[in-house]
Fold each of these.
Amino acid sequence: MKDGGEGSLARPAPEFPPFRPLPPWFGGDLQTLRTTVREAFGRAPARLAGPSERLSFPMPDGSGDVLLGSLDRPSTATAGRPLAILIHGLTGDEDGAYMHATATALLAAGLPVLRLNLRGAGASRPLCRGTYHAGRSEDLRAVVARLPSDLARDGVVLVGYSLGANMLLKFLGERDSAVPVRAAAAISAPIDLAATSRRFLARRNALYHRWLLDRMKAEALATPDLEPAIAAAIPGLRSTLDFDEVVIAPRNGFADAADYHDRCSAVRHMGGIRCPTLVIHALDDPWIPATVYTAFPWPETPALVPLLPRSGGHLGFHDRGGAWHDRCLIRFLACRLPFG
């Protein structure tokens, strides 16, 4: 990968602020649910106020699929700052609350931001017969390679969330990018897909599981030209593991769900990462077991900077200062980019 960042690994690591949960959102479950609960009571998170530009990225695989993204530019242009590309999680899209929150923080720091819809997600859905999955790093590679020259000239910063973060880490480990990746961040990534699948099926996650499975089914059934046999099977699927077995695996060339999980888990690729990468994960994440992070040999991959607070939930990190993970991201980037 032309990451352009190996020389920056010797720079001192930033001092990250401690995570102190915002009362009364204590514990992994409340941190995970806070945004959803607040939206249910009419307290929607703030959205970007300015106009966005629509960018399209035809995929080079002959499918005819096209990915769409929203480009937001800072109010004051700053020379030398890379484009930040945000990659959403499972059943997400460019308009997720976390996408808008991070975009706001990065725009304030002077970076242009591309909020990407993965294959078959959000605004990309009617333009795609295929669908994204946790290991479809070739789509991210194609987007980076097809960036307009004015956006690519200063390199890119990549930020992924949940499933999109797993895809991002896999991409970085493959070290194949047409544009220098100057820094990256992965937030709440299910780096071991099999272990995450088992954890998600635990009884304590039954409500989460039902909610997510319903969203996965609806998203898949909205896919244009979905194979009739798969479309007929989707309503009867009883678990996310069944979904991976019946939908993801056969549609993407995997032998079965186990093969998909094994080949696409980021943990298999993280040892190859050379780009400075912040990895944020809460040890009380109710969806992803902490052991997949605590057992990883972090000292063997110095490009990775693990930030593993005891609390924060899944894509939560709501503290007294707002979005804690976004503040940590800005501090991390400030050590490696010309923010001064």
Amino acid sequence: MSHSTVMVTGGTGFIGSYVVEDLVEAGHDVVAFDRSTDPRILEKLGVADDVEIRRGDVSAVTDVIGAIRQTGASHIVHLAALLTTTAREHPRSAMQVNIEGTNNVFEAARILEDQVERVAWASSAAVYAPPTNYTENDGWVTEDDLVYPDTLYGATKAYNEHQARVYYEDHDVSHVGLRPTVAYGPYRETGGSAFLANIVEKPALGDPFSVEYGDQVIDWQYVRDIAQAFRKATFAPDARLSRRVYNVRGTVATIREAAETVDQIVPDADLEVSDDGELPWTQQLDMTAARDDLGYEPDYDLETGFREYIDVLRAEHGLESL
């Protein structure tokens, strides 16, 4: 893989910062393009001085085109989006950022076709229908199964998959979309699934925590695995791609199994698990295609991901590692 300049939209956010770190460590020049120029996570990851942080708004096409042209970026990782809860509360903004913003990225790649070689971009497992729609194959979901989102956020991602296909078929814009699930790891922003972080964070710092959904399955996807998936999607040769949108996941485990893993790492953890409640997500993603085409394989299982997460948290609070 040759040295490239990569622009990461949403590059100062949670996942974006880890993607930036991964690309820097792989030897690339990286531009973090974001409305926020707060380098906090990049500084914690030790790469803030190795990246150009550029203020810009993906919903402003002149910002996007100007940034790509002026930085000479040959590859784009497009992550900037309003997530589920924010999209529900601010639907018009979600349409502008998630749909128009993504269109601006593809338009820039079309206009700057002699410069931009690939757009790797974030779709989401939220494009799928609720879990009750997938009863075959023990609930495992492939990229060809029903796409019928029940959130506005998921709907914006499903639309983006359609516009990405059109830009590829009509304008030869090379792209790879990934459908990750819920990321976990240090410095994660709070949100509708914050309880997943609390399963790790509360015991790590000696606080009690009670969680529902005990025997329900979650895809525990460590953020560094998502980062390496986007790097591989950015640079996978077109000839290797059997499709343009891929499932990617981490470790599939129940809430109870996750709590038991935390108990093994934190001996005095005060975690209570009940079977109340029902999770709305489909988490059992088949990622055979990503393995075959992109060479993606998670580096972190539940124990190694949780342990790194816990040790970072404890170090930040002046506690010994476990």
